[in-house]
Amino acid sequence: MTEWHSLWAFLFIPLVVVAAFYRLLNRKGLISSLRFSVLENLRHVNRGARARLSELPLLIKGLAIVLAILAMARPQEANTKIKRNIEGIDIMVVLDISDSMLIEDMKPENRIESSKKFIGEFIQGRSSDRIGLVIFSGESYTRVPLTLDYPLLLENLKKVTISRNIKMGTAIGVALANAVSRLKDSTARSRIIVFMTDGENNSGTIDPETALEIAKGYGIKIYSVGMGRDGESMLPVYMTDASGHTVKQYRPIHSDINVPLLQKFAERTGGHFWRATEGTQLKDVFKEIDELEKTKISTDKFTRYSELYQPYLRWAMIFYLISILLSRTLLRRKP
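The chain above was modelled as a monomer; its predicted structure follows.
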């Protein structure tokens, strides 16, 4: 994009135009002449090429002056670059996959499917944050480490199920310590854990209080979510009947959430605790986390100017020299 730095220079162009009109209006008075007593023999004499081109040096000189004015106006090419500085957030989502997460008291289906649905929507709403996924029951493992590869993360989240391949129970301390280990070396301006469970600690080799102190020591914030209703519930159990068909049955189960522990997680680390007993509440939880943890984006604008006056000045000098050369040689006027 071309810009003109010194627009005031264009004020000289009207002066050049006025001088040109003045020259044309007073042309006869400025031309040398000879007197003849009889003009009959001269009327049929044609003007030669030199006579027709007599004003050419003046026109070229005028063009040279206009080009010099354009050079004086300092044309510049503006090259603007915008640098976006993004300070992302590192987020570890810790999801309980113990048997009680199959209880069907949270839409669209049960506790685990409701959790997966709204975690997925939360991930899709982020753009510059690294997100990881830790799952746990009686033990814990990292399903996806911190990553910006959201499609990979969503694909793995979709495959999360209640698994019999890991120890049964609810190892809250181990799961929290696992998430902390993934965040402790992070240099992000904000590091958070979204901890989701529907039970209380009854397994694992690490005490929740110890894991909490480690998280607090590293400056990691915990957003804890207690899911489902307390008390007696019905747990779906899938069995195979005599004909080989899978039959869904229910058995009673007692489900309690350690609310004081989850509240302590949040209070001691500067986070927040939510109680979600239905799917719509869980959706609101992730909406609020999204509002609380905004990625910081700042914009720096840099403009580099390149001077373009040189060609105008060069051609102004060339045309001016040509006008002088023509006026003193081929198109020289003689009295």
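The mean pLDDT is 84.
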